[in-house]
Write a structure and sequence with these properties.
By secondary structure, the protein is an alpha/beta fold. Helices cover about 25% and strands about 20% of the residues. The protein has two domains: about 300 residues, FAD/NAD(P)-binding domain (3-Layer(bba) Sandwich), CATH 3.50.50.60; about 180 residues, Succinate dehydrogenase/fumarate reductase flavoprotein, catalytic domain (Flavocytochrome C3, Chain A, domain 1), CATH 3.90.700.10.
Length: about 500
């Protein structure tokens, strides 16, 4: 921990915000509008700036009923049948619910272009699930973040791109009073001490791009993510050094995604065609355009393919203690020519193949076949051989699946009859899948005022957090748009409370 009586300060601001994603932008706008001098620090260069929020679909929660939403969130956070044992405490749930219910009004008041999307909880069987109301920013996450950048620019908030925060600076009493950082602009890195006369707000995201942290903390490895490239756990380590407690470190918002060596991020797959991600959030009324199944490395189905968009990755975490391996890592998306005819296999609503267009997937999938990203076999046996998979296993699995389709009932995993489309139009194809998806959730524990806490539950003076850096969510995720909703809600909570700090270092 860096502490000393007198620092040499190079610059000062009332509120120093680390990280320029959605939570950082919301916190900056809120703090500025409350009269604070704000410095917003982002380690990525302006021209290549990419966050989890900007690669997201742009869907966010804005609750329809606070009482019902509280009931749902408390049920979601209950750990088994252990009374009083919760992933997230009631105070945090109350703060999240109260502010999330205001999200759409806040964005609309700021001039944001939003529209109603759907009502769809991730776990509709829990009480209060009907309160999960989803709204969407027009133009997806990319346009949503451009809107936030415009709000920040209109206020002339000081934004320091290409500047990496290194350590939090504290006084001798342990209060966070500033940040040591390196300004990389201009070619020659320059170390600076920035004084925060009121508080520092951590909006640095998770650790999706730090392999060592993923190996140590997550339930299965490897795991890949489709969000921002700058999330390497910096804020988590800085908070640890000044005494922060951690929570939710083994929790993720994730399902299964593809990962190709040529791309830095994971890719979401539109498994059956026709916009899988959007259909998964709505009541399915029409039969899926094409059939598919997901199998383990031995060619066996292991779950219903109606994946929980933010929890299915946990299904991959079974470890075979005899073979010493995760049999479901990798898994495989198995499909036939029927799916190929429906257009790009990659989703176009989020991730690197979404509006950001880090990679433009070919319409007929031919380029990706040539790259070897998609395996192909004229027969099921030929496809299995190319995957180093027992051919008889995959053949039996597909034959069983086709029988389920003819019967109109998935006797193994209970998949919806609307999803029962056979695999009977050769050639056959496969894409390798890994656990992964949106983002990690762990980081510094915080309270309902967004104050970062030490292991004894006491606030660390001068330090706040927002967004996925210590998310409110534990093992289970409430509904699509939960993290964007949290960024909007806790960005405001952190700023509103941080500006009340009246500490001024002499």
């Amino acid at each position: 921990m860096l502490t000393q009586e007198n620092y040499r300060w190079d610059q000062a601001a009332d509120i120093v915000i680390l990280g320029y994603g959605l939570s950082g932008a919301v916190a900056a706008v809120t703090a500025h509008d409350l009269g604070a001098r704000v410095l917003l620090v982002e380690k990525q260069p302006a021209e290549t700036h990419c966050t989890c929020s900007s690669t997201a679909m742009g869907v966010f929660l804005s609750l329809s009923d606070i009482g019902r939403a509280t009931e749902y969130m408390m049920a979601l956070n209950q750990v088994g049948s252990q009374p009083g044992l919760l992933w997230t405490d009631a105070e945090m749930v109350k703060a999240w619910v109260t502010y999330t219910a205001q999200n759409k009004e806040w964005l609309a008041r700021m001039g944001g272009q939003i529209k109603y999307f759907s009502s769809a909880a991730e776990f509709p069987q829990l009480p209060g699930a009907d309160s999960m109301e989803l709204w969407k920013y027009r133009g997806h996450g990319l346009r949503m973040m451009q809107f936030m950048y415009d709000l920040v620019a209109a206020r002339n908030i000081d934004v320091r791109y290409q500047t990496s925060a290194l350590r939090l600076l504290t006084d001798n009493a342990g209060r966070v009073v500033g940040v040591k950082m390196v300004d990389g602009r201009g070619g020659t890195p320059k170390e600076l001490n920035i004084r925060a006369t009121r508080a520092v707000v951590l909006c640095t995201g998770g650790f999706e791009e730090d392999e060592a942290m993923k190996l140590q903390y997550l339930r299965v490895y490897p795991m890949y993510f489709a969000g921002g490239t700058g999330n390497t756990g910096d804020g988590i380590r800085m908070a640890q050094e000044v005494g922060a407690d951690l929570w939710h470190m083994n929790c993720v918002s994730a399902r299964l995604c593809a990962k190709f060596p040529e791309l830095p991020l994971g890719v979401f797959i539109d498994f059956s065609g026709g916009g899988w991600s959007q259909r998964s959030m709505k009541t399915k009324k029409e039969k899926a355009p094409a059939g598919f199944i997901i199998v383990d490395k031995y060619g066996r189905r292991y779950m219903t393919e109606e994946l929980k968009p933010h929890a299915a990755s946990y299904e991959c975490g079974w470890f075979d203690s005899h073979k010493l391996e995760y049999p479901r890592v990798p898994s495989y998306h198995i499909f036939d020519q029927r799916r190929v005819k429906f257009g790009p296999l990659a989703q176009r609503t989020s991730g690197p193949t979404g509006p950001h267009q880090f990679y433009k997937w070919s319409w007929d999938n031919r380029v990706e076949l040539q790259k070897g990203w998609i395996a192909k076999g004229e027969t099921v046996g030929e496809l299995a051989a190319s995957l180093d998979m027992p051919p008889e296993n995959l053949a039996n699995t597909i034959a069983t699946w086709n029988r389920h389709c003819r019967a109109g009932r998935d006797a193994e995993f209970g998949r919806s009859p609307l999803e029962l489309v056979p695999l009977d139009e050769p050639p056959f194809f496969a894409i390798r899948l890994f656990p992964g998806g949106s983002n990690t959730l762990g980081g510094p524990r915080r309270n309902g005022r967004a104050q970062v806490l030490n292991p004894f539950g006491e606030p660390i003076p001068g330090l706040y957090g927002a967004g996925e850096c210590g998310s409110v969510f534990g093992l289970l995720y409430p509904a699509g748009g939960g993290n964007l909703a949290e960024c909007i809600a806790f960005g405001r909570i952190a700023a509103e409370n941080a500006v009340k700090e009246n500490y001024e270092r002499a």
